[in-house]
Every structure is written in C-alpha cells, then in structure tokens.
Amino acid sequence: MKKTLITLAVLAAATGVAQAQSSVVIYGTVDAGFVSERGGKAGSVNKLDSGVASASRLGFKGTEDLGSGLSALFVLEAGFGVDNGAQGKDEGLFGRQSYVGLSSKTSGTLTLGRQYTPWYNTLSKVADPFAVGYAGSAKNLFPANTRTSNTVLYTSPNFNGFDADVAYTFGEKAESNKYGRQIGASAGYSNGPLNARLAYNNTSNDDIGVQAASARNWLAAANYDFAVVKAYVAYGANKGLKSAQLNNKGVDANGNNYYNYAPAAASTDSNNILVGATVPVGPAGTVMASFIRTNDKTAANADADQWAVGYSYALSKRTSTYASYAKIKNKNNATYTVGNNSNVGSGDKAFNVGVRHSF
Fold first, then answer.
1. What does the alpha-carbon distance between residue 236 and residue 218 come to, in Å, rounded to a whole number?
2. How far apart are CA 115 and CA 77, in angstroms?
3. Is the Cβ–Cβ distance between 295 and 301 less than 8 Å?
4. Which end of the chain is less crowded, N or C, counting CB atoms within 10 A of the terminal residue's CB?
5. Domain 39-358 classified CATH 1.10.3720.10?
6. How many CB atoms lie within 10 A of CB 219?
7. Which residues lie closer than 8 Å to 195 by C-beta, 6 or more apart?
8. How many CB atoms lie within 10 A of CB 25?
9. Among candidate residues 79, 89, 90, 150, the one with its CA nearest the CA of residue 114
C-alpha cells in the first residue's frame, strides 16, 4: 500500500511538471466596420466589411519546454469574415498560418510551414503607421508578399538589439525546385525609441518551358518614437516581372479592372516612398497619417500617390474603435485602389469606421 501511494505521488508530480512545461493558447481578432468606397467603375459602394483594421482570425498556438533552453512550438490560424461568418475566400482551413518548429534561446528559431515573409513583417511592423490596416494600408501601393506555403524560416536570437531572419520557400514543381521558388531575408535593429529594418524578397518566375527574370523587392524602413509623435519612413525598390503586380490593386483575378479605362501593364521597375506618423491623443487615442508615392520607372509611367489619415480609440486593452480615410491619385492609367487589411477596395477613395476586439 505504501509503495502504491509513493508511485501515485511520483506520477502525479510528473504529470504536473509536464503540464507546467507545456501550454496551448486560443487567440483571435474579431474586426468589423462600415466601409464607403468612391471613384471606381461601380460608383459608390457602401458595405459592412470584415477585417478592416486587422484581419479577423481564430488561432491556436502552443509551446513545450524540452529542457536546456530548447522548446517546441506551433501555430494554426484560420481567417473568417465577421460580416457573413464564412471562411476566407480561396483559403484553406488554416490558410493564414500553419507551422511547427523548434526554438533555442541561444541558437534561434526554426519553423516549417505556411508563414509570413520577412518582407511583409518589415512592411507591417516597421514601415507602416497603419500596420497595413484601415483605409491607409501600405498594401494599397506597396507590393505585399504577405505569406508563403512550404516555407522554412530561421530567426536569429536578439543580440543587443540586432536580429535577422531568412526564409526559403520550395517551389515543389516538377523538373526543378527553382520553378516558383521564393527566398526572403531581413535584418534590423530595435532598441529604445528606434526600430529600423532592411528586407529583401526574391520570387522565381521560371516554370516548365518558361525562363523569366525573377521578381526582386527591397525594402528599407525605420520608425522613431519621440514620445509626442512616432515618425515613420520607408523606401522600396521593385524590379522584374511581377515585382509590382496590379492584380489585387485595381484588377481582379479575372483581369477585370475597377475603373473606366484600360489599366496600365504591371510595372517591372518601380519604387515606393512612405512618410508617416502616429500621435497619441489623451490616454487612449491615436492619430495615424501617411503619404505614399509609387514611381513607375517604365515607359508607361503609371504613378500613384496616396494620402491617408485615421484615428483609433482604445476602449480597453482588447477593444478599440476606429475611423480612417484615404485617397489615391492614379496617373497614366494606373489602377491602384483604396482597400484595407483584408480587402482590396473598388475605387480611389474610401472611408471606414468600425470596432476591433482581440482575445
């Protein structure tokens, strides 16, 4: 009897240790707002939209302590529309993120699966005062390069504010893995009020029977917090076929454009410049503003400018309300549209107001 009690006590203690070393968290964002769009072929469009400031999502993430500073981790994240309850269009069950990996305090983190690119993390977390959301999203004019499947991503530890990451995406096509291959990397410094980062993304356009130059995107971004205002600046350069696609920027998947004129061809040589700021207002408010210029350096000269302003008010740590407005000036048959975090929009002007809750 005594041995049995001792055995049960040991098992109970071991179970408690295992539970203490592992954790799984359910998290998500529920975001919906009223959106009014103007200036497109469809005329005025008023709608209830989902994921205006941040994409609505439901996720599961977990870690397990493996000892000696090593841990296992995973993320599974699904997108959905608050306005209709539907899963993201053309999106798998965990189409936003799905990866598993190992993390070491001294050696860095290695993850495998569908995940954000280093380029997109630089755009959303360092370059854009709107964090690629609201009407002022930098995705309206900058290439997005959002996330990739079949990706191996390595992230270094933080060394006195410096860190770097590199990603390799398998093309997984016959004959050559170069077909559809994507390579990305970024490096940066974050310490105190300064956050600066340089990112690169390369996508192969080669395919069976097709030899084409790759799409190459560079992005340099920085923000500095002066306490009374946080200043943002970014510069992007895009070269090669599909480096600055018009698809999802005024032209839908079927080639239909949102304006009453024929769209210019997608640029193979362009750059983007962004300047912006966020200003705290009172204990819970934030004003956001930015100006973005896209310079098409090809013969088409299809340039565009975007002005944007927004306001967010935190009702609590998890819930906020917001309003934003943006206007794009397209030139020489450029067809960029004012969208938001989740949708591309249908015209050159948009206003939105909504509420976001995170859990």
1. 5
2. 10
3. no
4. N
5. no
6. 27
7. 126, 188, 189, 222, 223, 224
8. 10
9. 150
pLDDT higher than threshold 60 for residue 13: no
Q: Residue 252 contacts by C-beta under 8 Å, 6 or more apart in sequence?
A: 258
Region for 184 from its dihedrals, namely left if φ exceeds 0, alpha if ψ lies in -120 to 50, beta otherwise: beta
How far does CA 358 lie from the centroid of its chain?
Answer: 17
- Calpha distance 108→158 (Å, rounded): 8
Q: Return mean pLDDT, the chain.
A: 91
Distance CA(167)–CA(151), nearest Å, equals: 7
Are the CB atoms for 132 and 123 separated by under 8 Å? Answer: yes
SS (H, E, C) 216-232: EEEEEEEEEECCCCEEE
Distance CA 179, CA 174 (A): 8
Report pLDDT for 248.
Answer: 54
- CA atoms 109, 110, 112, 118: torsion sign: positive
Whether 97 and 115 have beta carbons less than 8 Å apart is answered as yes
In this structure, what token pair is assigned to residue 268? Answer: 């193979």
Q: Are strands 194-203 and 215-225 parallel, antiparallel or unpaired?
A: antiparallel
Q: Where are the domains of the chain?
A: 39-358
pLDDT for position 255? 65
List, for residues 121-131, the tens digit of each pLDDT value. Answer: 999 999 999 99
